[in-house]
Write a structure and sequence with these properties.
The complex is a heterodimer. By secondary structure, chain A is α/β, with parallel strands linked by helices. Helices cover 39% and strands 12% of the residues of chain A. Chain A contains 17 helices and 11 strands. In chain A, α3 packs antiparallel against α4, α6 runs parallel beside α7 and α11 packs across α14. The longest helix of chain A is centred in the C-terminal third of the chain and has 21 residues. Classes of the chains: A alpha/beta, B alpha+beta.
Chain lengths: 496, 486
């Protein structure tokens, strides 16, 4: 027994990656039902401590697993993740399963339809274990802004798992799911990926359908995987990516076989190291780990060159105008009229609106709705929203210029290691956590975080790869080569 | 001393919303049929469910382009949807997907005829948007204990067309709307039904001293559900504003509601309470690029429009301008006319019959009723042929038309069954004329003394005696003959 919750539920099935699990299904060494039961048992034992899940869909998972058993038994699996127990962030609509978005206002919302990503996962045979905790409406970097409870970091239960996809990241990091789905608007997959030592991939804007993803900031949101290793991220991305006629912003760009790309060597790969991503005030342990990682990549045959992304400093400010502006619009529909909560004691329509929203939304969501409403208001629109869009264009051009010289950009995912619950009360301090991930969303580029070491206190550190539009393959290849060449992957948190 | 009353000029601009006749909604696949059970034609998208996304209805764009071309607009090379924000329970997302800075088309015009005078009214812009749902209150709004929302209409494609402030009288506003509606119907993009609200109109109206080039304080008028009400509301408003200005009052910029029952407008909200719509480009949709070749294809495929058809009617059928204008008011009426002329090639007679008889029964702009007329064009032509051949008299024909309209039967059937065939048998008529002459010695005497008009009275007696079936031409010549023999 390794301590932690005091109940030993370690099991080779829950310690396997998704692709290892699938190998076991293929060889007959294990079945999807056995794997699903192992995960459900572990959730029962450990999730009261980690608190990754808002809803566990036990019966549905067992039914889906048993169908997968049958497919593997008859040698007709649906694909490379058939039967893999998967967790889904509670921001994706699941037909008949409540989808709360971490908010009281949607506490009882049961969607009548499935998100495209859910349909694709299920069509590929994935077994959905449940819906994971998140910062309310994906606004936050610690999962403390969930209306229900805070999720813990499996590496240190007194610390946050990052956010907003903290539930999904903690679930994968604590072996409470073989793989998970998150969403990333300003770093919400990569930052919790870094904080929990998991692989977090935010695909190119338009790569994965947003249909059924409860919108935070529509021009920035992307759905992506959180996984135990890079190979798993490649498998899951392949399943969820691709054009969707229901999402006009989804791109009609062919989806490569990412897994097949992984084995290609990275010799000759040109890596750019942006100086603006190594700033004063960042954790020296993070900087050291990232610098060492760059050396590893060079030893693998990549060339590294310093470069500059001069508009990086303005990205955070632009993001905190554009994202709240879009959010203020997207969240206008939560008014108590149609679904979700409605206060009982309203005098009239306006009173119902304001009471429902006052009681239904948390402080951070209200803050952003107000910020966004202000930024779009007559008289301020030009100075704030329009100006921020101009900055966004400049940020994109910075990256375009950089990618004319390099194939991939490498940087830290976050400036710091996971912080303690309640440590960042000041919203601005919280926002600063995302300075290295936000520019990537503004530019619509793919970004991936992979474990690149540990602090002295045994907290994971994340290395971020940023790529050209729709070039997730190169990110996955570089990250996989790095992962294979380093020992970090072998460490697990001691939970039980 | 007070100066004489000033001379004011009326300045009107109209905003028309037209529901497009697409089979599916603007941003989802739901049907657009009117009158279905509440909320039966909805899906997560048009109910604004969390996570849903809009997808543009290509057909609606095409309808928009078609209309814009008919209005002589410039189709913008690119256009974009934007979100317009305000809170109301009939709007599920609390924003409406509309177009703002980058509309589909701009800078067109529409030809309007008032008192035989043609004028061009400028069209500022034409854009597409989604309709909202419908609220059903439990009793009057102020005291209703509950309200229900029907989202069937939510997401139905709407085309908004904004005129320039070029309209100078309430009458001209009504003429603009008639011409506007006719074009939509010719194009087949809207059914033009104002009662079912598939066509709606809001008006902006202000007054200024004649000769002034700037604009006065404008008032927006809403809730006018017929062309007649638009005209009435604007007439009321001209009066109200003229009186206020004459009293030296300052008008306020506001929105006023037309109360058709009471015949006045009342203030709804003033500018201070105007919405800040917080428009921004709809991030869930990509900007649309208009394919030039496709636009030209649509232009080439445009049907003949009312103005062209009117000109052709005057040329090809040598109709007076008045007839041509009236007959081309709706596509169904013009089609009816041409079908009748094909069967009975005397265009002016056909026109007279349509104007005097058919349009007494069916309004000229009621497309549906015209298309389903109990007297189809072929039957009208058949009736006119009977007159032409002398089988029935024109007077009897009017009664026959009415019977045709009530029964749906053709002229032959009615004329034969009711024995209405004209008596042109000179023998039979001669006998009747003898009797009439004998019975009316005074009229005969008058005629002999040179009062030739007395013959008319005698013809009338003969017609009466034959219950109108006598051929008036034959009666007349026989009578002249008999009289001169006396």
């Amino acid at each position: 027994m390794r301590g932690g919750a005091g109940l030993s539920v370690s099991n080779p099935l829950t310690e396997s990656t998704a692709h290892e699990l699938v190998e076991k299904f293929r060889s007959g060494a294990a079945t999807p039902s056995a794997a699903t039961r192992a995960y459900l048992d572990r959730i029962t034992a450990l999730d009261p401590t980690v608190r990754a899940y808002i809803t566990v869909t036990r019966e549905r998972a067992l039914a889906a697993a048993s169908a997968a058993d049958e497919r593997w038994r008859t040698g007709r699996p649906k694909g490379p993740i058939d039967g893999v127990p998967t967790a889904v962030k509670d921001v994706l609509c699941t037909k008949g399963v409540r989808t709360t978005c971490g908010s009281k206002i949607l506490e009882r919302f049961v969607p009548p339809y499935d998100a495209t990503v859910i349909e694709r996962l299920e069509a590929a045979g994935a077994v959905i274990l449940g819906k994971t905790n998140m910062d309310e409406f994906a606004m936050g970097s610690s999962t403390e802004h969930s209306a229900f409870f805070a999720t813990r970091n499996p590496w240190d239960l007194s610390r946050v798992p990052g956010g907003s996809s903290g539930g999904s990241a903690a679930a994968v990091g604590a072996d409470l799911a073989a793989a998970a789905i998150g969403s990333d608007t300003g770093g919400s997959i990569r930052q919790p990926g870094a904080f929990t030592g998991t692989v977090g991939l935010k695909p190119t804007y338009g790569r994965v359908s947003r249909y059924g993803l409860v919108a935070f900031a529509s021009s920035l949101d992307q759905v992506g995987p959180l996984t135990k290793d890079v190979a798993d991220a490649a498998l899951v991305l392949r399943v969820i990516a691709g054009h969707d006629p229901l999402d006009s912003t989804s791109a009609d760009v062919p989806v490569p076989d990412y897994a097949a790309e992984l084995s290609r060597p990275i010799a000759g790969l040109r890596i750019g190291v942006p100086k603006e991503y190594f700033v004063e005030g960042m954790d020296p342990e993070v900087e050291r780990a990232v610098r060492e990682a760059i050396e590893v990549l060079q030893r693998l045959g990549a060339t590294a060159e310093p470069l500059s992304l001069p508009t990086t400093d303005f990205a955070l400010a632009a993001y905190y105008l554009i994202a709240p502006a879009e959010a203020s619009s997207n969240l206008a529909r939560y008014d108590g009229v149609k679904y979700g909560s409605r206060v009982a004691s309203a005098k009239d329509l306006i009173d119902m609106y304001s009471k429902t929203r006052a009681q239904g939304f948390g402080a951070e969501v209200k803050r952003r709705i107000m910020l966004g409403t202000y930024a779009l208001s007559a008289g301020y629109h030009e100075a704030y929203y329009a100006k921020a869009q101009k900055v966004r264009t400049l940020v994109r051009r910075d990256f375009e210029a950089a990618f004319s010289r390099v194939d991939v950009i490498v940087a830290p995912t976050t400036p710091n290691v996971p912080f303690k619950l309640g440590e960042k009360e000041d919203p601005l301090a919280m926002y600063l956590n995302d300075i290295f991930t936000i520019p990537v969303n503004l530019a619509g580029l793919p970004g991936l975080s992979v474990r690149c070491g540990f602090s002295l206190a045994s907290l994971p550190i994340g290395l971020q790869f940023i790529g050209r539009p729709f070039d997730e393959a190169t990110l996955l290849r570089a990250a996989s080569a790095y992962e294979q060449a380093t020992p970090w992957r072998d460490r697990r948190p001691s939970l039980g | 001393m007070r100066s004489a009353a000033k001379d004011y000029e009326t300045v009107i601009g109209l905003e028309v919303h037209a529901q497009l006749l697409t089979r599916s909604k603007m941003f989802c696949g739901c049907p657009t049929t009117f009158g279905a059970a509440p909320n039966s034609q909805t899906c997560p998208i048009c109910q604004g469910m969390p996570g849903t996304l809009p997808v543009i209805n290509r057909r609606a764009i095409e309808f928009g382009v078609r209309t814009a071309l008919a209005f002589h607009c410039t189709i913008n090379p690119g256009c974009r949807f934007a979100r317009k924000h305000y809170y109301y329970p009939d709007m599920p997302k609390n924003f409406q997907i509309s177009q703002y800075e980058e509309p589909l088309a701009e800078h067109g015009w529409l030809e309007v005829t008032v008192d035989g005078q043609e004028r061009r009214v400028g069209i500022q812009r034409l854009h597409l948007e989604e309709d909202v749902g419908k609220l059903i209150h439990d009793g009057p709004l102020e005291t209703a204990r509950s309200s229900l929302v029907d989202f069937n209409r939510s997401g139905v494609p709407l085309m908004e067309t904004v005129s320039e402030p070029d309209i100078r009288s309430p009458e001209e506003a009504a003429a603009y709307l008639r011409a506007f509606r006719a074009i939509l119907l010719y194009l087949g993009v809207c059914d033009g039904n104002m009662e079912e609200r598939s066509l709606r109109c809001d008006a902006n109206i202000s007054l200024r001293e004649r000769g002034e080039t700037g604009f006065g304080t404008k008032v927006e008028i809403k809730n006018m559900n017929s062309f007649r009400n638009v005209q009435r509301a604007l007439e009321f408003e001209v009066g109200r504003q003229t009186e206020a200005l004459a009293r030296g009052e300052r008008l306020v910029q506001e929105t006023r509601l037309w109360d058709a029952d009471r015949g006045y407008t009342r203030s709804m909200r003033s500018k201070e309470f105007a919405h800040d719509y917080r428009y921004f480009p709809e991030p869930d949709l990509v900007p649309l690029t208009m394919d030039r070749a496709r636009v030209e294809e649509i232009r080439a495929g445009l049907p003949e429009l009312p103005a062209d058809r009117r000109q052709r009617f005057m040329r090809a059928y040598t109709l007076p301008a008045y007839d041509a204008l009236l007959l081309t008011q709706s596509r169904a009426l013009a089609d009816y006319y041409e079908a009748a002329v094909r069967e009975f090639a005397r265009p002016k007679i056909v026109s007279n019959w349509i104007m005097s008889e058919l349009l007494r029964e069916i309004p000229a702009d009621d497309e549906k009723a015209l298309a389903a007329s109990p007297v189809p064009a072929k039957n009208l032509a058949g009736l006119l042929q009977l007159i032409d051949r002398g089988t029935i008299s024109g007077k009897i024909a009017k009664d026959v038309f009415e019977k045709m309209f009530r029964s749906g039967e053709d002229a032959d059937t009615i004329v034969t069954r009711e024995g209405l065939i004209q008596v042109a048998d000179t023998g039979a008529l001669a006998a009747i004329i003898e009797q009439i002459l004998a019975a009316n010695p005074k009229a005969v005497l008058d005629w002999k003394r040179g009062k030739k008009a007395a013959a008319g009275a005698l013809v009338g007696h003969v017609m009466k005696a034959t219950q109108g079936k006598a051929n008036p031409g034959v009666v007349n010549s026989l009578l002249q003959e008999k009289l001169s023999q006396l």
